Every structure is written in structure tokens, then in C-alpha cells.
Amino acid sequence: MKIEVDWAACISSGMCTAAAPDLFALDEKSQLLVLVEGELEGSLPGQAVEAVDVCPVQAIRLVGER
Question: Which pTM was predicted?
Fold first, then answer.
């Protein structure tokens, strides 16, 4: 499973950073950063699902097998 972000839709609310701190952060300008590229392993898929669920504009999508 991999993370995809719809950058045009993302409002950098920070909800995903709270739900998945190992996957997302906000930079000094409060822009979203994806911290992990490629396939998610270990506890990261669970965090990714949580981030998708809490995104207020549904800008995060997971692709690949779950």
C-alpha cells in the first residue's frame, strides 16, 4: 500500500499529522509533507488508514493492497 495526496484538495489542516505522525508532518509554512515514500510496512498501514479517515477534505488516498 502507498500514500497518494491530492495536492490541489489538501488544505494542510494537520489532522493527518496527529493521526499518523510517522507518515505526515507540516513544514515551517504549514504545508503538508509526506515522510514515507513507497510501500508502507509495520504499523504504518494502520496509521495511513487513520489519516485517510480523519482528512476533512478526503485528500489522502491509499493505493495497492491492504
Answer: 0.91
